[in-house]
Amino acid sequence: MPKYLISACLVGENVRYDGQNCLQQKLRQLVIEQRAVIICPEVLGGLSTPRLAAEIVGGNGEDVLCGKAKVLDSAGNDVSNAFIQGAYKALQLAQKHQITHVILKANSPSCGSELIYDGSFSGNKIQGNGVTSALLKQHGFTVITEDQFLQILDI
Q1: What is the DSSP string of 115-136?
Q2: Neighbours of 23 (CB within 10 A)
Q3: What is the mean pLDDT of residues 64-71?
């Protein structure tokens, strides 16, 4: 039976930077059925809720992991270490729980798996992975967005 790793904000936890969530009831059902482990890499990395919005500046999640780019909050503070620590804690949980499917929040600097914001805090998006998505993919996990998962369910 599949075992899911899901962004906590997608199952109704108020862990987004703005203190809100992005509840998707079909994903919450997987938690109710005890088929999912929930994570918020940013909180796992030590960031508070709420917190300033953050974006990857100078690249993507892979670049952050190898020191070529940074994650900055909207005040210009470097929060890269918190994002990297959270990514590694998410990886440990995925491995410990033998996760088969990873569903992470689209566009996030941690969880985005197709598009991320471009670092200008202007709402523009670029192709790329967030820090946690990049690390999980490097370790063989397939990461999809909530929209991709819900499309699969509707087929």
Answers
A1: EEE-SSSSS-EEE---HHHHHH
A2: 13
A3: 98
